[in-house]
Amino acid sequence: MSELSTEDAKLVTLARAARSRVNAAQGAAVRDETGRTYASANVVLGDVELSAVVLSVAQAVASGAKGLEACVLSADAGYSEADLLAITSVSSGIPAYIISLAGDVVDSQTV
Questions:
Q1: For the chain, where are the alpha helices, taking DSSP H only?
Q2: How far is CA 104 from CA 42, 64, 94, in A?
Q3: Fewest CB within 10 A of the end CB: N or C in the chain?
Q4: What is the pLDDT of residues 62-99, one digit of tens each?
């Protein structure tokens, strides 16, 4: 797997921190078209679960982002259909990484 850019490595740090901060199952971070970053952990509210990716993308859009440049997910499982739909509803053709809790890239794809 290719080495991450400096900007994508920052997303790894943010996703890991979001996950670790609250001992969550997931942490995610996205970067918008202006270089701003947004990070979140997944949230469980009774019967409703919001993924870290969906929350990060929603934060970006709520802040005025018109596009995304990259996404990083720190989780034991990969991207869900809802995660991919959230990303592609804003942008397509961006790198999406899955990282381990230790911060190693375990998978990547273009979405």
A1: 6-21, 52-62, 81-88
A2: 20, 31, 19
A3: N
A4: 999 999 999 999 999 999 999 999 999 999 999 999 99
DSSP for residue 64: T
Cα–Cα dist 5/33, whole Å: 16
How far apart are alpha carbons 67 and 38 in whole angstroms? 13
Given a cut of 80, is residue 1 above it in pLDDT?
no
6-110 CATH fold: Cytidine Deaminase; domain 2 (3.40.140)
Residues belonging to the chain: 111
CB under 8 Å to 22, separation ≥6 — which residues? 41
Q: pLDDT, tens digit, for every residue of 12-39?
A: 999 999 999 999 999 999 999 999 999 9
